[in-house]
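Box 4.2: Ligand-aware structure prediction
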Amino acid sequence: MNENQQSLLLQSAARFPPPKGVKLSYGTAGFRADASLLEATVFRVGILAALRSLKAGSVIGLMITASHNQVSDNGVKVADPSGGMLTQDWEPFADAIANAPDPHSLLQLITEFMKKEDISLEGRQPAEVLLGRDTRPSGEALLEAAKQGITSIVGAIATDMGVVTTPQLHWMVRARNRGMEASESSYFHQLSSSFRCLMDLKPEGSRNNGDDDTLVVDGADGVGGEKLEHFKKMLTGLCIEVRNRGDGMLNEGVGADYVQKEKVAPRGFGPAEAGLRCASLDGDADRLVYFSVILNKNNKIELVDGDKILSLFALFIKDQLSILNEGEGKKENGSYQARLGVVQTAYANGASTDYLKEMGLEVVLTPTGVKYLHEKAAEFDIGIYFEANGHGTILFSEVYLSWLEATHKTLLSTSEAKQKAASRLLAVSQLINQAVGDAISGLLLVEVILQYTGWSIKRWNELYHDLPSRQLKVKVVDRTAVVTANAETVAVQPIGIQEAINAEIAKYPRGRCFIRPSGTEDVVRVYAEATTQDAADALASSVATLVNQYLGSGTA
Ligand code: 16G
Ligand code: MG
């Protein structure tokens, strides 16, 4: 950086002093805090995004959202050139600059990092960052801070995509870097045309699924509801009614996180919806769960969570692959046996994992957090990943897609059934957002598959029966004292705790239990599962007691 460039950066940084006594960390989903604390952080993440763009020679994304958190919070995260999460190698730099006490120390960190990463401001291509925000009132001012951060790197361009869902922004980044148009209308166009294609390829005789035809969606009073209300007009063959479109309080008693954790109907849903097929998005529309309200049970619901969405997707993809592979020997005659894999975390209900394995699928567990699941799923030709909380998607490898495109053409003359299966898989690869989990695109794929199978939400929910489970959180002095291994299924520290947990688990038939430090809250989480609710509750509570014994209570 020359002197002019340095002084530009110092001047802008001086306008965004960090709040005193606050230490922030780029957690599993970026920085999140009360919005009033975030301007300086967002400004600095703007700088990081511009540098990342220079380093990658590609367009980068910066999203301002706090997802399912309360409306007074906000957050910021970066999308890498592929549309996925920021590379983990850059997280320590994000932490360091967010916590630099003054402009000079910030400048020093930046110049050192640029040297280490060999980033030059004199390159031919300017940095470009696509910016998006959700509907939070604090979003506008934070977006301005991000712009100032980006443009404090000489020559960098900040392109405002407006109010968008998190997955829309990730999609746009991916599209731009593949030389495609990156606008909301191109996003909606791709989704609606691949949806139509899948509907047109429905096998003859597909039955009505028996539900009232309308899907009722809870938009969490966030950005997703608003977008879906607009988008639904472009869809044929699907009737959607969107509630909680933004008039009420964001994430208050609404949204996928609330519905999944509390297992009750969101605001605006009640006995009148009993038995109907309902879905819920979270505040930035990257999570999706389905549910149906149980009549006369105090708004309790049958929850159809991310594990069940994963199972539905896996069934469909597997069916199409078997049509495609019928009568083909392994890797003979130009055939290609796609490697299909599913990725879950330890929070996946044990019954779902058993079900998927019984279907003959390869199931892999990773630690919690989208970045881990996504990375794993990308190792397959077709990798499907989901967290139980409803975040997930399907990834297709480039090699497999090229093969599919080529084969699709040759199949035109040989087998109509195979050709259709190939077309369906290609349409799924267009419909599903391959950058990141996307409630809107996921919802469309669920609806297509339900129409193919003729299943009601009840029938879908009966694919397998969830084992009763219980989650607890324990406040401790230092949650980082818990160190886990094997995709968080084993606690290797504190020494001895895992043996004690195992002794508890052994008391319950089909008992399963693990502990992990939360990445978003200052607590240790306990998850337990067993054949009855009482047993799951008892197991969770005795393990929570162990956590307290080994780590000391933080509530004093
Ligand atoms: C974040 C993660 C989510 C994970 C959750 C776990 C992303 C985009 N989001 O919301 O995947 O399930 O954290 O929270 O990665 P916890 O660590 O507090 O349990
Ligand atoms: Mg979210």
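In the box above, the bound molecule is 16G. The chain has a mean pLDDT of 94.
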